[in-house]
Write a structure and sequence with these properties.
The structure is a single chain. 32% of the residues lie in helices and 27% in strands. The chain has helices spanning 15-24, 39-49, 56-61, 77-86, 101-113, 128-138, 156-162, 173-189, 306-317, 325-344; strands at residues 4-9, 29-35, 52-54, 67-70, 90-93, 118-120, 145-155, 192-200, 205-207, 219-221, 227-234, 239-245, 247-260, 264-267, 278-280, 282-283, 286-287, 291-292, 348-349. It has a 9-stranded mixed β-sheet with strand order 18-15-14-13-7-12-11-8-19. Helix 5 (101-113) packs antiparallel against helix 10 and helix 8 (173-189) crosses helix 10 (325-344). It is globular and about 65 Å long. The chain starts with a strand and ends in a 17-residue tail after the last strand.
Length: 366
């Protein structure tokens, strides 16, 4: 297929794996340029990957660029996506699609009006871990599913010191991390019907006790939410709980399970591509040891960029891409509903829905 001329906006930590994969892994990109707020940062990445550094304005004014991939903090997404779509370019953005659903709705309508594709991370659900789970569900390995549970523990003392962007608006636990689990849930099980939740930000400031980080020994502002407990009911009647506590000692661990009439599927971290699920089944009145399932799908390493690659192939095949704007919008609405449920101490109904993507096992490696 003809390679699509692509520009990347953002030269932060996540950009290296994207630029590596866009250049070396996937068969559909002609990676042309990288832009950033500070041209010096863009130039460093450009020199490293043998592409051109430019300003955002130059990229958007370049008529040869067909696709823009945005890797900046969520607070900048609306403005950058709006400008890119207005310039006639397809867009794929890192999570979440925007800060709020009103912004997302405007951009989705603009993309439809201009007949352009709009996609959003996370694309990790396309990796082998969750495609293996997808196949197990489709094959009936755990029977009818009636519930799920997620329990995440992380350490915000470490995270907010090492990654200062987590202190910015829109970079709390909901939009930065729980988005991976919510995307995994809706792409495996279906759309959410309603939500109740508690969302807390217990420490507005904290001391940076992590050596060799900027501001070590100083008090830093950490205003974002870090503790969430939510109950969800899906439109198909499945119910579940989602809990995230970033104020504990564990650096990054989670228990994620789908409970069916024939078995339990123990899932890995949806921030990763290849942590294969395990199947727990009955053995008489006891349980067998969990069995790791045979790998399905292709991408078990860090394949960030797979979402835009699948989008480009979908454009070629005239079909809807899997990491699409409807899924991103729906997950963002669920996140907003959790915030509203906390504010008003009520159950919030979700207005949008999205389709469950079909099993994915295409190989886009060069």
């Amino acid at each position: 297929m003809k390679k699509i001329k692509t520009g990347v906006i953002g030269a932060g930590a996540i950009s290296d794996i994207y630029l590596t994969n866009l250049r070396n892994t996937f068969d559909c990109f002609d990676l042309v340029c990288v832009a950033a707020n500070h041209i010096e940062s863009a130039q460093k990445k450009a020199d490293k990957y043998g592409i051109r550094a430019c300003t955002v304005e130059d990229m958007l004014n370049d008529e040869s660029i067909e696709l823009v991939i945005i890797l900046t903090p969520v607070g900048s997404h609306y403005d950058l996506i709006q400008k890119a779509l207005t310039s006639g370019k397809h867009v794929y953005t890192e999570k979440t699609i925007t800060e709020n659903t009103q912004q997302a709705k405007e951009l989705i309508e603009l993309a439809e009006k201009k007949n352009l594709c709009l996609g959003s991370a996370p694309d990790t659900f396309l990796g082998t871990a969750f495609q293996t789970a997808r196949k197990a569900i489709d094959d009936g390995k755990i029977g009818e599913i009636h519930s799920f549970s997620v329990a995440i523990t992380r350490n915000n003392d470490i995270l907010t010191a090492m990654f200062p962007f987590l202190r910015q608006p829109g970079a709390g636990a909901l939009r930065d991390y729980l988005v991976y689990y919510l995307t995994a849930i809706v792409t495996l099980l279906g759309s959410v019907e309603c939500v109740s939740a508690f969302v807390k930000a217990p420490y507005k400031t904290r001391k940076n006790n992590i050596p060799d980080t900027k501001g070590y020994g100083e008090e830093i502002e950490t205003p974002n939410e870090s503790v969430i407990a939510a109950s969800l009911q899906l439109k198909n009647g499945i119910v579940g709980t989602v809990m995230e506590n970033n104020e504990t000692i564990a650096a990054d661990r989670a228990d994620f399970a789908l409970y069916g009439t024939k078995g339990v599927l123990l899932l890995g971290n949806p921030n990763l591509f290849g942590q294969l699920p395990k199947l727990l089944q009955p053995k008489g009145w006891t349980l067998e040891e969990p069995e790791e399932l045979k790998q399905e799908g292709v991408y078990n390493e860090n394949a960030r960029g797979l979402g835009p690659a699948e989008m480009v192939h979908a454009m070629e095949e005239n079909r809807r891409h899997r990491a699409n704007e409807k899924i991103a919008y729906h997950v963002l609405e669920v996140i907003e509903a959790m915030e509203e449920a906390e504010k008003n101490q009520t159950v919030v109904h979700i207005q949008s829905d999205c389709e469950i993507p079909s099993f994915f096992n295409e190989d886009y490696n060069q």
